[in-house]
């Protein structure tokens, strides 16, 4: 009986079904991925909406680059959310919908092949049944013929039997034998027919159907593999635009200009009032003799006149040459640091623009690379200008450092501190960062009273004992500490050293 193919049929049935189940599982997986993507995009959109500014107060703020850039970041994030929605949409149509259609076709095709295999199996089985019945009939007829032949022989040898009886028995046996032989031929023909059918079934029909099922399964695997790749490709396609959004966010950060924001704020809040004039120096020391009679220590009146004069700040020079050497170095260094910072920022901006230009050239649908040219040119000009500035200030700084020794000798010979007094009010800015606890390097006594009116200087009273914290660096000033804990600069010529 033909049962061998049935076991094979069951195995193939199971295997092809599990393949279809996998396609179905993958469709479901992608569907759930798109739901995550959509809810992510939705949350991002409501987040940007929540932080987006509305109202006149905000419009006012948005003139400042740091406020405006945050708005740009929100806009970019909103566009980014749009790209996430696009991923979800393309996965839905490109993978879920297409694979679902394909799955229906596969199910139909599988059904057809399996029913063809079943039909072939049934045909072979019914043919086998027919063979069995012809075989049985042949066996039965042959037994009957055998019996009839024996009966005829028996009748012939019976002395009592008539010739007619014998003739009759012979004819009956002959007829029976003839029928049996016909059944034998029938059986032989049927056997030949069945063997041919069985051969066709095992060597042709079933292999063909199983090959079709195998081909169908391989097509399914190939199509599923494409679906797997699509899962990544769909997202890859929007990556240039996602990158562009992220570049936009970086660019919004890079282009913030804190100095410009400050200038804008100052412009907005200018009061228009004139600033108060300088407070005049009131001279109480005229006519009072100092304690010592040594007239050489008496400051000439010209000093005080000069002091009055210097309260009006001299015009500031761009290279800070109006400042004493130590202060000048500090100011030049600070300026160099500022320019270096600005240069680094402009350089970053230039890199960001070049990167964006590259993205546009690769993906023209995202933007026109030539539209970035004006910005690139402007940034390049700024870099050039800042490099020039940097070189200029660095030259001045090396001058200031190199010129220190020569200036010492000149200032040490100044007569009666006239020069020192002349420079009294020049200190517009002192560094207050004397964090390290310093110990005094000497003591001195104030010869005259000095009103420290400008930033960094302190007032001292005639006869006061002071601690020296920093000696004269050749610019006519020294830093001292009063008993009260106050610390600052005073003209070196106003004190005498205490041994």
Reported by name, the CATH topology of the largest domain is Substrate Binding Domain Of Dnak, Chain:A, Domain 2
What helical percentage do the residues reach?
A: 55-70%
Shape: rod-shaped
Radius of gyration: 55 Å
- The tally of strands reads 5
By CATH reckoning, the class of the largest domain would read Mainly Alpha
Poorly predicted segments: 298-314, 405-435
Overall average residue pLDDT: 84
CATH architecture annotation name of the largest domain: Up-down Bundle
Strand order of the largest sheet: 4-3-2-1-5
Count of separate DSSP helical elements: 10
String of helices and strands:
HHHHHHHHHHEEEEE
Question: How many domains is the backbone divided into?
Answer: 3
Major beta-sheet overview: 5 strands, antiparallel
CATH 4th-level superfamily of the largest domain: Arfaptin homology (AH) domain/BAR domain
The span between the termini is: 132 Å
Q: What portion of residues belong to β-strands?
A: 5-15%
